[in-house]
Amino acid sequence: MQTSAKRHQVGLFVTCLVDMFRPSIGFATIKLLESAGCDVNVPSTQTCCGQPAFNSGDKATSIDIAKQTIEAFDGFEYVVGPSGSCISMLHHYPELFAESDPWHARATALKGRAYEITSFLTDVLNFDDILASYEGVATYHDSCSGLRELGVKQQPRTLLAKVANLSLNEMEESETCCGFGGTFCVKYPDISNRMVENKSANIDASGANTLLGGDLGCLLNMAGKLKRQGHAIEVRHIVEVLAGMTDEPAIGDANYNLGKAV
Amino acid sequence: MQIESPAFKENARIALHDVDLQKALGNLKAGFPTKRAAAIERMPEFDSLRDEAMQLKNHIIENLDLYLEQFEENVTKQGGHVHWARTSDDACKTILDICRQVGAKTVTKGKSMVSEEVNLNEYLEANGVTPVETDLGEYILQLRGDHPSHIIAPAIHLNLEDVTEAFHEHHGRPRSSDPAVLMQEAREMLREKFVAADVGITGANFCVAETGSTIIVTNEGNGDLTQTLPKTHIVITSIEKVVPTLEDMTLFQRLLARSATGQEFTVYNTLSTGPRRADDQDGPENFHVVLVDNGRSEMVGSEFQDMLRCIRCSACMNHCPVYGSVGGHSYGWVYPGPMGSVLTPKMIGIEKAGLLPNASTFCGKCESVCPVRIPLPKLMRHWREDEFSKHLSPKAARWGLGGWAFFAKRPSLYRLLSKGANRALRLMAGKKGRVTKLPLAGGWTDWRDMPAPSGKTFMEQYKQQQR
C-alpha cells in the first residue's frame, strides 16, 4: 500500500452520460482507482467534454467548453474517465487552438495527462489486482474512439481475464461501430438502427449472456436495441464488473423504485 | 449524372428496404475487406509503406505545379499532347474537339471515374458521338442506363439476375444465369466495338512525370484494347494523379492493389508513353492527356489538402458501416462513401452535399484502412464547420445545440438541468427502467428503448457522500 503522499492525484472526468444515466459507473471507477493507489477528486466545474458541439461544427462552443474543462482539471496529475469517446475528445482539444495561443500548451498538457480508465490502470499503473467475481459469459464491444484514437483493445481483456468465474466469448465484428455516433443516431435514425441491428445479431450469436463495453453512449444504444428486441442479455459497463459492483440491475433492466425518483 | 445528394436521407431509407440491394451489399462486405486483411497479413511492412506513401504524396502536392509541368514536357517530347481543363465543361469540350478532328463516330471507354465526374458520356451523346463502356461492370450499367455505385466495382449494387435480364433485353439472346456464358457474350459484343472505335478513352491511375507516361491498373484487359486499337487514345485524368518517377509509381501500385481488392498486384498494369513509334507493333497514332482540375487546385493549401492524397482504392467505402448499409447510390453523386463525403461538397457545393459529411458516426474505420492515411473523419468535420458557419445546418439542430451549449458552459445551471432531466426520465420510465416513447427523441425511441437513469445524478450522490 502506498503512503498517502505518494498516491497519484487523479481528477475523475465523470462524463455527462454517466452523470445523468448511470452514476454507479463513476463510483466503480473511483473504487478501481483508489484500489490502484490513487486519490480521486471530482471537480464540480466539469460538465460535458464538448463533443456534440465539436462534431456539429460549432467550433466556438467547443473552444469555450474545452477551456472550462482544462481549468477544471488544472493541477491534477492525471485525468481519468470511464469513456474512450470523451477522453478522445479531450485529446482533440489542442486542435482547437492556434499553436501560438497559450491555451494550446494547456490543452496539450491536458491531453498528455488524460486516460481512459482501462488504459490508465493497465498502461500507466500496470495494475491488474482485480478481486471481483462475475458469474457469466461476457462478450466485449470495442467502442470506436477508444479503439482507434486511444488504442484501447487489449487492456479491457487483460483486466477481465482477472475476474473470477467470468469467461469471454468474442463476437464477430466486435470492432464495427454500433451506430450510436452521438447526434448521428437521431440525425440518421434508420441507418443507425440498421447498424445496431447488425450489432445485436452479432452479440446474440456470440452466446454470451452479458454485453460489456467501455462507453455508456454505445451501451445505451445497444441495450436499448436488445431490450426492444426482447433479449435477456445483460448490458453493463466494464468497470461495474471489474469493481465488483454488479448488484444494481443492468442497463435498461431496472426495477427501480418509482418512489425514490424525486 | 444528376445530383441527388440533397435526397440522401430518402435515398438511404429506400436503400435500407431494398432486399436485392441489401443482398448485393452483403457480398461486398464478405469480399473486399476479408481479402484486404489477408493480403496485409502477408505483408508485414504494409504500415511503413503507408507512411512512405503519405509523405511522398504530401511532397507531390506541395510541388504539384513542378511535377505537372515536367509531366507535360515529357508527354510532348514523346509526341503526345497535354490539355488543361479547369472545369468539367472544359474537359468535355476538349475531348469532343479531338473526336471531331478525327471524325469519330464511336469511342470505346475504359473505366474512368473522372469521366463520370465531368459527365462525359452524356456530353458526347448529346453531340453525336457514341461512347461504349468496355469495363464489364460499366458495360452492364450502360445497358441499364445506370450509374456506378462504387469507384472500383461500379455494378456492385446489382445481382446476377439483373445482368441476366439486361443482357437478354439488349443482346437478344436466350437468358443465361451462368457467369461464364454471360462473360463470353459480353466479350463477343464488345470485340466488334473495339475494332470499330475511332477513339479510345481511358482514365489513368497515375501520371509519371519523369517519362510522360500514364498507367491504367485493371483486372479485365479491356483497357488495353481500348487504348491500343483505335487511332486516337485520349486519357482523361485529374491533376493529383501525377507521381515523380516510375519507382514512386510502384510504391502506390503495391498499396493500391492490396487496399482495393486484396490482390498482391493487379492483373494488368499498362503504361502508355506517347503515340505509336515507327518500330512499334501497335498503338494509337495520336495520344492526348486531358488533365482535369475541377476544384482540386483550390484544395492545395486549404484544410482539405490531405484529400488530394487519395489513390481511389475504395478501402474507405468497403469498410464503412454507413456505405455498407445504404450503398453508393444513396450518396447521390459520383463519389460515394467517406472519400465521396469529403470530395462531393467540394465539387457540387456544401449547400447540396451537406448531408454527406454528416452521415458518419466518426467511427474512424475509414482512416484506419486508408493506404495514404487521409484523416477522413477530420475532413468531414471541416465540412460540418463550414456548414455551421454558413448557417446551413437544420434550424432544429442549431437550436438544440445552442440550448445545450448554454447549459454546458454554466456548470451550476447544468447541474439543475441534468437533475431535472434525470427525474423526468425516471418518472416516465416507471418500474420498467426504460422509456419506450420519448417526445422530441423519436429518432431514438422509434427503434430502441431509452434506458432510464438508475438513480439520482452522479454529482448529487457524490456531493451527498462528501458531506
From TrEMBL, chain A:
<dbReference type="InterPro" id="IPR004017">
    <property type="entry name" value="Cys_rich_dom"/>
</dbReference>
<dbReference type="Pfam" id="PF02754">
    <property type="entry name" value="CCG"/>
</dbReference>
<dbReference type="GO" id="GO:0016491">
    <property type="term" value="F:oxidoreductase activity"/>
</dbReference>
<feature type="domain" description="Cysteine-rich">
    <location>
        <begin position="10"/>
        <end position="90"/>
    </location>
</feature>
<protein>
    <submittedName>
        <fullName>(Fe-S)-binding protein</fullName>
    </submittedName>
</protein>
<dbReference type="GO" id="GO:0005829">
    <property type="term" value="C:cytosol"/>
</dbReference>
<feature type="domain" description="Cysteine-rich">
    <location>
        <begin position="139"/>
        <end position="222"/>
    </location>
</feature>
Automatic annotation (TrEMBL), chain B:
<dbReference type="GO" id="GO:0051539">
    <property type="term" value="F:4 iron, 4 sulfur cluster binding"/>
</dbReference>
<dbReference type="InterPro" id="IPR037171">
    <property type="entry name" value="NagB/RpiA_transferase-like"/>
</dbReference>
<keyword id="KW-0249">Electron transport</keyword>
<keyword id="KW-0004">4Fe-4S</keyword>
<dbReference type="Pfam" id="PF02589">
    <property type="entry name" value="LUD_dom"/>
</dbReference>
<dbReference type="InterPro" id="IPR004452">
    <property type="entry name" value="LutB/LldF"/>
</dbReference>
<dbReference type="GO" id="GO:0006089">
    <property type="term" value="P:lactate metabolic process"/>
</dbReference>
<keyword id="KW-0411">Iron-sulfur</keyword>
<dbReference type="Pfam" id="PF13183">
    <property type="entry name" value="Fer4_8"/>
</dbReference>
<feature type="domain" description="4Fe-4S ferredoxin-type">
    <location>
        <begin position="301"/>
        <end position="331"/>
    </location>
</feature>
<dbReference type="InterPro" id="IPR024185">
    <property type="entry name" value="FTHF_cligase-like_sf"/>
</dbReference>
<protein>
    <submittedName>
        <fullName>Iron-sulfur cluster-binding protein</fullName>
    </submittedName>
</protein>
<dbReference type="InterPro" id="IPR024569">
    <property type="entry name" value="LutB_C"/>
</dbReference>
<dbReference type="InterPro" id="IPR003741">
    <property type="entry name" value="LUD_dom"/>
</dbReference>
<dbReference type="GO" id="GO:0046872">
    <property type="term" value="F:metal ion binding"/>
</dbReference>
<keyword id="KW-0408">Iron</keyword>
<dbReference type="InterPro" id="IPR017900">
    <property type="entry name" value="4Fe4S_Fe_S_CS"/>
</dbReference>
<dbReference type="InterPro" id="IPR009051">
    <property type="entry name" value="Helical_ferredxn"/>
</dbReference>
<dbReference type="Pfam" id="PF11870">
    <property type="entry name" value="LutB_C"/>
</dbReference>
<keyword id="KW-0813">Transport</keyword>
<keyword id="KW-0479">Metal-binding</keyword>
<keyword id="KW-0677">Repeat</keyword>
